[in-house]
Amino acid sequence: MKTIIISTLLSALTISISAQNDSFDYFGLSSPGDKIELFAPGIISQEISYEYSLAISPLGDEVFFVRGSWPDCKIMYLKKINDRWTKAQIAGFSENCNATEPAFSPDGKFLFFSSNKEKTDQKDYAIWRIEKKGNEWGNAKKVIDFPETDIWEFHPSIANDGTVYFCWWDSKNNKGKIYKSVFSDGIYSNPEKVDILFAKGSSVTNPFINPDKKYIIVSAKTEGAINDFDTFISYRKDNKWTKAINFDDRFNTSEVDDSFDISPDRKFLFMYKNGNIYRAETKGVIK
């Protein structure tokens, strides 16, 4: 009897996890297959505005994204209620400030974002966090902010253990680095630099960390590069990051190729180009 009960519980847990991972309906859109396709035109991507930085809740019932050009940008919000999506509107925490680059924690309990809240310099962004309790989001709290006014923090991405990876941007020299802040006992540690193998003098920005820390995707302008920023991926091996690999010409162009994000179900890669959000399958692209 005990074996049967355990087996039943495991089966129920498997179904629950599967339902959670497959629950986002992608607004009824079919997979783009081998193509790179504009995502949710008319719903999120608009012809007359600039959209980027898509964040999908692990349960698939909430979507945040950015509309506007930095630093004058807002985080937009959609929610699925009774199997119908609401229209995109400005998220409450973004109404009285500019904010960008939302990112869910893997468990869906927190939403992180970058904002100029409480700043005199409207370009000076820091990392903020809001917590979800029940069906409501709480008040925003600043969690990462270097004391130097010329250092700005962008593009948070969160691992399963709560560690926040983000872009440390030196506004004086227009160069970025990747930092991380470990979360322990309710406190974020002093940020430390993440050593990804790039040539000295490269500018590295906008990380996406795989929740299990198996890989990290970044945007980088390497020393002596002909093109502007390209996207790269680095895999974790023996507790070190391998040499970053440039995504092929299918994804990188002669223009600025901004950050990539991965859907919670790991099926799709979202990329941001020319003020639009695009989608491609991760199959055959990421190991």
In N-to-C order, the SSE pattern is HEEEEEEEEEEEEEEEEEEEEEEEEE
Number of helices: 1
Number of strands: 25
Query: What is the overall pLDDT average?
Result: 89
The best one-word shape is: globular
How far apart are the first and last residues' alpha carbons, in Å? 41 Å
Low-confidence stretches: 1-21
Residues in helices, as a percent range: under 10%
What fraction of residues sit in β-strands? 35-45%
Oligomeric form of this entry? single chain
Biggest sheet layout? 5 strands, antiparallel
Output the structural class.
mainly beta
Output the radius of gyration.
19 Å
Summarize the structure.
The protein is mainly beta and 287 residues long.
Quick tags:
287 residues; mainly beta; five-stranded antiparallel β-sheet; 1 helix; 44% strand; globular; disordered N terminus
Question: If you had to describe this structure to a student in words, what would you say it looks like?
Answer:
There is one protein chain. The chain is mainly beta and 287 residues long. The chain contains one helix and 25 strands. It has one helix at residues 2-21, and strands spanning 37-38, 51-56, 62-69, 72-81, 84-85, 89-90, 99-104, 110-115, 126-133, 136-137, 141-144, 151-158, 164-170, 175-181, 183-184, 187-188, 192-193, 203-209, 215-221, 230-237, 240-241, 245-246, 260-262, 268-273, 276-281. Strands 2, 3, 4, 5 and 6 form a five-stranded antiparallel sheet that branches. Strand 7 (99-104) and strand 8 form a beta hairpin.
